[in-house]
Amino acid sequence: MDDRLRLDGNAAAGTLGEVFSFEVTTAHYACEGCGRIDQIGAAMVYDVRGLGTIVRCPGCDNALIRLAHNRGRYMVDLRGTRYLTTG
Ligand SMILES: [Zn+2]
């Protein structure tokens, strides 16, 4: 990559703020494990007390999204999804 085009993460704040402020239950995902495409609202959710939330694919049990909350911050791991679309 051309270093002249590189910006810090603050440059993406507006765009990321728009992307992550949608109705999640109607958002569609594609599972990295089996390729299933479905709405997040139809996935399986496990609340792990004190640790966070795991959203799993009903087709193959792959962990689509791992969400942890610690010290007032959220950590979101989307490695189990190929993509996530808004609404
Ligand atoms: Zn799957």
How would you summarize the topology of this molecule?
Layout: H1 13-19, E1 28-31, E2 37-39, E3 44-48, E4 52-56, E5 63-70, E6 73-77, E7 81-85
Antiparallel strand pairs: 1-2, 1-7, 3-4, 4-5, 5-6
The protein binds zinc ion (ZN).
Task: Offer a few descriptive terms.
87 residues, mainly beta, 4-stranded antiparallel β-sheet, 3-stranded antiparallel β-sheet, 1 helix, binds zinc ion
Task: Describe this entry's structure for a reader.
The protein is mainly beta and 87 residues long. It has a domain at 26-85. 8% of the residues lie in helices and 40% in strands. The chain contains 1 helix and 7 strands, in the order H-E-E-E-E-E-E-E. The chain is globular, with a radius of gyration of 15 Å. The mean pLDDT is 88. The chain binds zinc ion. Zinc ion binds next to loops. Zinc ion is lined by residues 31, 33-34, 36, 57, 59-60, 62.
User: What oligomerization state is this entry in?
Assistant: single chain
User: Which strand order spans the largest sheet, edge to edge or round the barrel?
Assistant: 3-4-5-6
* Element-by-element helix/strand order: HEEEEEEE
SS strand fraction = 35-45%
Radius of gyration over all CA atoms, rounded: 15 Å
| Stretches with pLDDT under 50, minimum 5 residues | none
Total DSSP E strands: 7
Can you give me a brief rundown of this structure?
With 87 residues, the protein is mainly beta. It contains one helix and seven strands.
